[in-house]
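Priority: medium. Attachment 1 of 2:
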């Protein structure tokens, strides 16, 4: 049971309260935890000051993504039960304290504290914070669920655009143990203050609330929108859940494979050509991909409200596979083609994250959609390891064999094509959930708003 002001009953919106205050509350949390995508800013300074290799300096980020998926999966039911204020408060405490523990680790020369703080405890904050507003947004915006979740999840994709230059300016040109520890300390305090705006502002709709003039729609054909509700326990028993798990996992794998290695990839791709890519230009490429990742979360998820969730995933997966094929076939003959294809692929990567909560709502209803979403995010944990592993392992192997340029990545691209095709097939297999999994109407009627 949540305590005092954190209790769900304390945040039921009064009549006349505007639902448009919920997206800013969600954004304050997602823009903060989106800092995770800017971890690379700390990698090199940590390697130099704490004498780490690249694999070691990646541990906090990798553990953070794993803990994101696990905490979202196991904490999803608690988030549904206790409400978004409780979840955002817990997220703030874990995420901010993760930075503070990391600051202590750097100051004392104990890297394991950085791994524990940022990756372990901070990773729990990532997972709880990521799912904290999703169910509430869907209930406030039943008429535009894709747009609503897209706004919030766009914040997670765009968090690095704020955090990266901010962190870099704090570290300076010659980072020391003191400046890194101070940066972690300041990050923890500032993010705690910023995330507090979210849990203080958020509200849930009263029982039976719906937008003026809006009537629920059902379309069991193309959009498969259901008015029935399915519990989280029953959802994982359905083939629909596991089809979407495959869809999300492989869509994320294909995107994160480029995102994680974007800077060295574009430099390797065009090395030895008349137009090589320098370090500064590669950094600009990374920023461009981050922008596409962020915008794709809003643009594509909003589009899904118009064309349907199944159709938009056909685009993510089918067109994504074709774009990878274009890159593999054109090699390094056109820098413009490479950049444009990568931009669209990363927009699909972001769009896939933002659209999946609405897809779940269409299939399983709003009853425990936050908990179901949490369980589905275990696909992200797997993809967060699988994508970088495929690209890095193959590139290292090809480099050891004496290859260079596009040859380092061609095999990886063909693997990504195969994964996207499998994801496309899984999406085609999604059908309306059978009635035996539906909640009895009286129980569904008692679901928390």
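Attachment 2 of 2:
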């Amino acid at each position: 049971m949540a305590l005092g002001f954190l209790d769900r009953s304390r945040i039921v919106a009064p009549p006349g309260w505007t639902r448009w205050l919920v997206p800013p509350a969600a954004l304050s949390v997602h823009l903060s935890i989106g800092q995770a995508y800017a971890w690379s800013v700390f990698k090199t300074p940590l390697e130099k000051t704490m004498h780490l290799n690249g694999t070691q300096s990646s541990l906090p980020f990798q553990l953070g993504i794993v803990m994101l998926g696990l905490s979202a999966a196991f904490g999803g039911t608690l988030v549904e039960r206790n409400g978004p204020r409780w979840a955002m408060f817990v997220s703030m405490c874990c995420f901010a304290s993760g930075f503070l523990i990391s600051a202590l680790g750097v100051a004392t020369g104990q890297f394991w504290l950085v791994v524990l703080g940022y990756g372990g405890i901070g990773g729990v904050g990532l997972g709880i914070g990521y799912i904290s507003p999703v169910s509430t947004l869907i209930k406030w915006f039943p008429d535009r669920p894709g747009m609503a979740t897209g706004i919030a999840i766009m914040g997670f994709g765009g968090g690095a655009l704020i955090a990266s230059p901010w962190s870099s300016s704090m570290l300076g040109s010659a980072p020391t143990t003191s400046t890194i520890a101070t940066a972690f300390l300041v990050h923890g305090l500032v993010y705690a203050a910023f995330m507090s705006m979210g849990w203080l502002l958020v509200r849930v709709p009263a029982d039976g609330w719906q937008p003026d003039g809006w009537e629920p729609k059902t379309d069991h054909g193309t959009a498969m929108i259901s008015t029935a509700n399915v519990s989280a326990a029953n959802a994982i028993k359905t083939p629909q859940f596991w089809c979407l798990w495959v869809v999300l996992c492989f869509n994320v794998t294909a995107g994160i494979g480029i995102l994680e290695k974007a800077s060295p990839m574009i430099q390797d791709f065009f090395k030895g050509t008349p137009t090589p890519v320098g370090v500064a230009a590669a950094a600009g490429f990374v920023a461009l991909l981050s922008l596409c990742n962020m915008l794709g979360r809003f643009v594509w998820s909003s589009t899904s409200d118009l064309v349907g969730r199944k159709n938009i995933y056909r685009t993510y997966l089918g067109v994504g596979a074709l774009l990878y094929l274009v890159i593999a076939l054109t090699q390094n003959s056109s820098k413009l083609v490479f950049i444009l294809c990568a931009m669209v692929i990363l927009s699909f990567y972001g769009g896939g994250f933002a659209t999946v909560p609405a897809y779940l709502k269409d299939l399983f209803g709003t009853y425990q959609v936050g908990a179901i979403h949490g369980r589905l995010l275990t696909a992200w944990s797997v993809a967060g390891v699988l994508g970088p592993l495929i690209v890095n392992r193959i590139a290292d192997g090809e480099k050891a064999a004496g290859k260079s340029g596009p040859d380092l990545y061609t095999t990886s691209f063909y693997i990504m094509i195969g994964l996207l095709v499998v994801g496309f097939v899984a999406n085609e297999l999604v059908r309306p959930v059978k009635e035996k999994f539906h909640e009895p109407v009286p129980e569904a009627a008692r679901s928390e708003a």
